[in-house]
Write a structure and sequence with these properties.
Length: about 425
């Protein structure tokens, strides 16, 4: 069961100031010196995304473990989650890459560190990480990072060196969390970091949200009506913002090769202002004669219901994913999935048992996998779903991610 941030009973002793000497939810975690830490996490914004979701999850987990979480960012809708838990949010222009702003942010963070007696600063993105690193150098505070993406190195010899240097702040943590084995290999292969400082902690999904028995029939009916889904057609779901590397064009081409008009493919995700790409997709759908078989819909606020309404979930990414939360969520909902054989997808599925793994940017291979997935019998589909749910429950839960990250915090409380 996922942790409850509003725990009402506390079986562990506390200090006179109320701070915990041991984690209330993870008994294996004991705080150095008998005092739970104050941890400041820094992210650019709290609008949407994996880094932001991880930041909120860890703030709640640390609070539940008796510690004091703080979050600094430019703000966004997700701040409401912090407000509900009474976790302080500090508004700073941390999304800015302007060197002068980064320096000013560093001074402000140093003042926050001193005022709140911060023990650890945890950076999750490059621009705020530079400010955090400078602030930690000025105050002697422990500094750690989470590597959320395989940042590119730019182009040209000069641009490449500058971009690599800019990225390197994420490898300067006393501990560096890699969110997948793919990211760990990227970090160790591209930055002069001691492997002993790197911790592999996969991202985790909330099993209190992504579980078939947590979705009511009313939610399914509501979403099916909203999307006007027919009852007699299998649904192919490709979630992801409308951007070329997510592979929407690959799926459209695969559907054209599949030649079936009795399916409905849903491209679920916002274009985030990429109206030119949206128009390109619409033209491609029309040219392939798939207007009745492919639809685009904006961001969905009930993805758990969306997965349950689908027959198969596809990620056709043309570039490596750092983790690929969608595919883990879909498996948690008991759905067969099809993924590209690049990036972390190769570790978040069991090929041939929970997923079809196809070469990236290969419509023929994707069409073949779709044909097989759509031809499954009810018993075969049920068996795949059971394997997928057990696989995710064993490896990719929010509880596991939070517990392993709290253990890193506990490591950093040890004397240098």
């Amino acid at each position: 069961m996922d942790f409850d941030p509003h725990l009402t009973t506390d079986p562990f002793p506390r200090n006179d100031d109320g701070s915990a000497t041991q984690s209330t939810h993870w008994p294996g975690i004991r705080w150095q010196g008998g005092k739970a830490p104050t941890v400041l996490q820094v992210v650019p914004t709290l609008v949407t995304g994996g880094a932001e979701r991880g930041c909120i999850d860890m703030a709640l987990a640390l609070q539940a473990a008796g510690g004091t979480p703080l979050v600094a960012s430019e703000g966004g809708p997700m701040v409401r989650e912090l407000d509900r838990a009474r976790i302080p949010h500090l508004t700073l222009p941390l999304a800015s890459k302007n060197p002068l702003t980064i320096r000013r942010n560093a001074r402000r963070l140093a003042a926050i560190i001193r005022e709140h007696k911060v023990d650890i600063v945890h950076a999750r993105s490059r621009a705020p990480a530079w400010s955090a690193w400078l602030a930690c150098r000025a105050t002697g505070t422990r500094y750690m990072t989470t590597f959320h993406a395989p940042y590119n190195f730019g182009s040209g010899p000069v641009g490449g060196r500058l971009k690599r240097w800019y990225n390197s702040v994420m490898a300067r943590g006393e501990r560096v969390i890699a969110i997948s084995g793919f990211i760990r290999d990227h970090v160790l292969g591209n930055y002069p970091v001691d492997p002993e400082r790197v911790r592999l902690i996969h991202r985790g999904i909330d099993r209190g949200v992504f579980a078939p028995d947590r979705v009511s029939p009313a939610r399914l009916v509501t979403l099916a009506k909203q999307w006007n889904l027919p009852d007699d057609r299998p649904v192919i779901l490709l979630p992801g913002r409308l951007t070329r590397w997510k592979g929407q064009t690959v799926l459209i081409d695969a559907l054209a090769k599949l030649g079936r008009k009795d399916v409905l493919a849903l491209l679920v995700g916002s274009d985030q202002g990429r109206t030119g790409y949206r128009e390109e997709l619409e033209n491609r759908i029309a040219a392939a004669g798939l207007r009745g078989a492919v639809r685009m819909t904006d961001h969905c606020s009930d993805m758990a219901a969306a997965y349950l309404l689908s027959t198969v979930v596809v990620s056709a990414s043309r570039e490596p994913e750092a983790f690929g939360r969608v595919i883990v969520e879909a498996q948690a909902m008991g759905k067969p999935v099809i993924v590209s054989a690049i990036g972390a997808f190769q570790e978040t599925v069991i090929p041939g048992e929970t997923a079809w793994v196809v070469p990236p940017d290969d419509p023929d291979a994707l069409a073949h996998a779709l044909d097989e997935a759509l031809s499954l019998t009810a018993d075969q589909r049920e068996a795949i779903g059971a394997r997928a749910m057990a696989f995710v429950a064993d490896r990719y839960t929010k509880d596991r991610m939070c517990a392993e990250t709290l253990a890193v915090y506990a490591e950093l409380l040890q004397p240098r």
